[in-house]
Amino acid sequence: MIRRICVFCGASTGTDPIHVRAARDLGRLLAERGIGLVYGGGKVGLMGAVADAALEAGGEVIGVIPRRLVEAELAHPDATEMRITETLHERKAQMAALADAFIALPGGLGTLEELSEVASQAQLHLHRKPIGILDVSGYYEGLLAHLDGAVAAGFLAPAHPAILLVETTAEALLDRLVAHGPPR
Ligand code: AMP
């Protein structure tokens, strides 16, 4: 059973409002399905949007934020629980430990780094938690094309792009993550 999902997403909202809507849809849907949200703890950007929507729908929201980002990313005052870490590495480790699956929404380098870490660990079988990309706008097409190129160039096993489950709606993505089942 998937009890909590860790969402990686931008500390910015991006310029296209479709991404804020997607973050809110995901937050609300997690709450409606009784799945807790684990995230970077901020009230800014898509992070704030997904957390606000989950809280408004009565969901559990656990933020994990490094001490030195509490001010810059405005640690969410209404989160069910806020964990303060000393480093970015501890943040990622705690987020991963608390969650049964991962979802990436659009974001910048921080999001890319977080997504890349859990995906590269999955290919080494260091965990078996499913990883999804919620790509409502085609934002991730470039990254996915790059991964196809990496397969063609012999740097990535053909099975490995399948580590990333890509869907355009939160409903479809949650269905696939849940169907993938709990980590063994
Ligand atoms: P961004 O996608 O760049 O807007 O960042 C999204 C989130 O990732 C923010 O909460 C950043 O603080 C966080 N972040 C940035 N770099 C790292 C990193 N190396 N490890 C963990 N989190 C990070």
Quick tags:
184 residues, seven-stranded parallel beta sheet, single chain, globular, 7 strands
Number of strands: 7
Strand content: 15-25%
Question: How many helices does DSSP assign?
Answer: 6
The helix content is: 40-55%
Radius of gyration: 15 Å
Describe it for me?
It is built from 6 helices and 7 strands. Strands 4-3-2-1-5-6-7 form a 7-stranded parallel beta sheet, with helices on both faces. The protein has helices at 17-32, 45-56, 88-98, 109-123, 141-152, 170-180, and strands at residues 4-8, 36-39, 61-66, 81-85, 101-104, 131-134, 164-167. The protein is α/β, with parallel strands linked by helices and 184 residues long. Helix 2 (45-56) links the parallel strand 2 and strand 3 (61-66). The model has no long low-confidence stretch (mean pLDDT 95).
Set down the secondary structure blueprint.
Blueprint: E1 4-8, H1 17-32, E2 36-39, H2 45-56, E3 61-66, E4 81-85, H3 88-98, E5 101-104, H4 109-123, E6 131-134, H5 141-152, E7 164-167, H6 170-180
Parallel strand pairs: 1-2, 1-5, 2-3, 3-4, 5-6, 6-7
Adenosine monophosphate (AMP) binds at residues 10-12, 40, 42, 69, 73, 88, 91-92, 107-111, 113-114.
